[in-house]
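pasting for ref
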Amino acid sequence: MSAAPAFGDLVRRAAGLPGRRVLLGIAGPPGAGKTTLARALVAAVRAAAGDGAAAQHVPMDGFHLADVELDRLGRRDRKGAPDTFDAAGYAALLRRLREQGPGEVVYAPAFDREIEQPVAGSVPVHHGTRLVVSEGNYLLLDGEWAGVRELFDEVWFVAGDSATRTGRLVRRHVEFGKERAAAQAWVATVDAPNAAVVDATAHRADLVVPEDLDLTAGRSR
């Protein structure tokens, strides 16, 4: 069995992917640490290049459907499931990033956890940005998500211990306003089933990354 990659190896792999515009996806279940890894990669690539525009983080979570639409569809009680996102809109953004022309700025949405809503036009991606890192649960999923995988140059999967993820998710839900009992119930009835769906897609990834990866090892000082 090959050794798990060090963070420095991941930075070099991401920076070394060929192309004028590189789209790197980071998939994994809720609470696995995808956002933490994506932000660390972007920061490290920027630092290595000496260019703050060398890489950009574009989260899939910006394509959550708004609560008003989830209410209309009757899906708000399982917000975060595959059909509570605008998968086609996300794919369209990835295609636009792939085809971005000189002088064009592409604006991507973000997800504001303070209000638990997507916010349009939050993340600017400039033509000169070479590496775009996008993370989300469903990058490797079939069905309405099937067109997403082919738009990435590589997709990595963050894997790890379900108990660790559960604790992390409960703390996150409590931090953003849920009572602890409600947070535990949400994790058990919504996040855990979603995690099972996502875990089943791991074999489609180009690389599996452990969730306990040391994000300082190999980083330039």
